[in-house]
């Protein structure tokens, strides 16, 4: 714990070794005026109950009244970390991109695509996405910790990002376009070429996020519509030719060829 958060006369759970899974020892803080980074405590747990000594502040792990919630979070975090997948640049990048596009200040994703955010904010994103707001029910490893943060494994994070991109495609596509323009602009400044490297790094994620937002479907639709209109124009040129208006038909055919 940070020194400023420790109060004299309060009880805390202390660890001899600051590692997950180590037992918590109940102690009471007696003084904070010792060496920097140390406090004086009295041990309340056996076998050394009553012993007073100076310990490092980082050994005080959690207020004693919160120990059960802390241990539960620690256990869930351990299982969560054990199941973390190997990073996938495109997938994790797409999730990160969509989360940034939501506009929340603390939005984002880890390198492996997992998401850790305020539960209330993630529930609102889920609502906009058309998903159940209790995202922790979608996967056994998803959980809300004692601080109110919701932790989503890759499977749920991908589902949420995909659904949000589909539901709020304009916001996601606008965010991507703005980011690309910014990176290109910054990279053109003297000595700032590394911004172009950053753009190349993020492009796989941008591409997948665009796909989720329906951009590829939109392009396919537009291509089909262009071909349909082209066919109508060719048909019109053929009709003009059949009526002896060869010059007019020729102009149309030249225009189609870009001449």
Question: What does this entry look like structurally?
Answer:
The protein has helices spanning 67-82, 89-101, 119-129, 154-167, 169-187, 194-212, 215-242, 246-256; strands at residues 11-14, 25-31, 38-43, 52-56, 60-63, 115-118, 143-144, 149-152. The protein has three domains: 3-66, Roll (SH3 type barrels), CATH 2.30.30; 83-213, no CATH class; 224-256, no CATH class. Helices cover 51% and strands 14% of the residues. It contains eight helices and eight strands, in the order βββββααβαββααααα. With 259 residues, the protein is an alpha+beta fold. The longest helix has 28 residues, at 215-242.
Count of strand segments:
8
**What percent of residues adopt helix (DSSP H or I)?**
40-55%
Overall, the morphology is elongated
What is the string of helix and strand elements? EEEEEHHEHEEHHHHH
Radius of gyration: 30 Å
Summarize the structure.
The chain is α+β, with helices and mostly antiparallel strands.
Notable characteristics:
3-stranded antiparallel beta sheet; SH3 type barrels; 51% helix; alpha+beta; elongated; 259 residues; 5-stranded antiparallel beta sheet; single chain
How are the SSEs placed, and which strands pair?
Blueprint: E1 11-14, E2 25-31, E3 38-43, E4 52-56, E5 60-63, H1 67-82, H2 89-101, E6 115-118, H3 119-129, E7 143-144, E8 149-152, H4 154-167, H5 169-187, H6 194-212, H7 215-242, H8 246-256
Antiparallel strand pairs: 1-2, 1-5, 2-3, 3-4, 6-8, 7-8
Helix pairs in contact: 2-4, 2-5, 2-6, 3-4, 4-5, 5-6, 7-8
């Amino acid at each position: 714990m940070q020194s400023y958060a420790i109060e004299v006369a309060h009880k805390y759970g202390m660890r001899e070794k600051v590692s997950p899974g180590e037992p918590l020892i109940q102690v009471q803080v007696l003084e904070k005026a010792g060496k920097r980074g140390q406090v004086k405590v009295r041990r309340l747990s056996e076998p050394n109950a009553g012993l007073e000594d100076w310990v490092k502040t980082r050994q005080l792990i959690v207020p004693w009244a919160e120990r059960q919630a802390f241990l539960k979070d620690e256990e869930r975090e351990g299982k969560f970390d054990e199941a973390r997948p190997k990073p996938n640049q495109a997938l994790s990048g797409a999730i990160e991109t969509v989360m940034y596009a939501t506009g929340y200040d603390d939005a984002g994703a880890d390198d492996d695509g997992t998401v850790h955010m305020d539960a209330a904010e993630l529930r609102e994103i889920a609502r906009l996405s058309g998903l159940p707001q209790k995202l922790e029910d979608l996967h056994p490893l998803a959980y809300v910790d004692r601080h109110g943060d919701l932790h989503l494994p890759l499977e749920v994070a991908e589902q949420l990002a995909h659904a949000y991109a589909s539901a709020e495609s304009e916001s996601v596509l606008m965010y991507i376009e703005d980011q690309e323009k910014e990176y290109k602009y910054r990279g053109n400044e003297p000595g700032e070429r590394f911004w172009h490297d950053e753009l190349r790094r993020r492009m796989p994620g941008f591409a997948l996020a665009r796909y989720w937002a329906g951009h590829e479907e939109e392009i396919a639709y537009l291509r089909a519509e262009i071909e349909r209109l082209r066919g109508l124009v060719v048909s019109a040129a053929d009709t003009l030719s059949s009526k002896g208006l060869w010059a007019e038909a020729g102009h149309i055919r030249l225009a189609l060829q870009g001449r």
